[in-house]
Amino acid sequence: MNDNAASAPRLAVSDPGHRGLSHAMKPQDQAPGSSPGQALRVRRILPGQPLGDVQRLRREVYFHEQGQQREDSRRIVDGLDGSGTVIVVESGARAVGTLRIHDFDALTVQVEYGRLFQIDDFARAWPLSQVAVGTQLAVQSEQRVKGMSDALIEETYRYALERGIRFGLAACAPSLHGLFEYYGFREYLPPAILPNGDAVLRMLLVLEDAAHLRECDSPLQHLVRDPAAAAAPLAWMRRTFRLAD
Is-contact 200 171, C-beta < 8 A? Predict the structure, then answer.
């Protein structure tokens, strides 16, 4: 999305040269549609690596499921796929859940999402490499179960911690407020009204905010490494956006 786009960033919810880190989910975490005994695998597709079946999944969710007659190829693969890391959950060779994450250090990300998230406020106090946004969330309809979304968001959170991300941003439809709130996101700005009249919620997650994650009973709370690291980002967020504790 750019500042004049008519749709929000799509959200419903390794070493270079390698295909990406991956790990298998336990058999009891299998979602409907998986073959018996076939575990779900979570892996990362790094910038520049082929998206593979992720393109089929995006097409299925964004267009076929919604019944749209014309597909926009830019919604399947766009220029930001070259700078973002894609988290994907797979059942066998098929992608069943995916989410893309990129930080604001890249000029292309600033151009696409900067105004929506008021990134200039962050830039005055934080390196933009410490602020990231999640986009292109797509989950196969029969796989929309708690274990699936938890696996996808947890791996994204691990990646963000490894990269030193302090703030995770997301824009979502009002119907998804409860989902993002469950993971620890909170609205930090009023809803944005897009040119087509749709409203999107602008939500923020402070990484390592152990107290808030416990309060939400977020499945991310066990991933916190250093709760003290959240103190400065939290204090700044409350001052800048006048959020309550």
Answer: yes
Contact 205, 178 (CB under 8 A): no
Nearest to residue 18, comparing CAs of 45, 58, 57, 54? 45
Q: Which two tokens stand for residue 151?
A: 């696996």
**Distance of alpha carbon 201 from alpha carbon 180, whole angstroms:** 10
Short-list 165, 101, 158, CA closest to 135: 101
CA atoms lying within 13 Å on the CB side of residue 165: 25
DSSP bridge pairs for 170: 203
Question: Would you tell me how many other CB atoms lie within 10 Å of the CB of residue 69?
Answer: 5
Predicted TM-score (pTM) of the model is 0.82
* DSSP 8-state code for residue 176: G
CB atoms within 10 A of CB 4: 8
Chain segment 99-131, per-residue pLDDT in tens: 999 999 999 999 999 999 999 999 999 999 999
- Measured at the CA of 155, the angle between CA 140 and CA 110, to 5 degrees, comes to 90
Cα–Cα dist 28/235, whole Å: 40
159 contacts 85 by C-beta, under 8 angstroms? yes
> Which three-class secondary structure state does DSSP give residue 69?
coil
Residue 123: helix, strand or coil by DSSP? Answer: helix
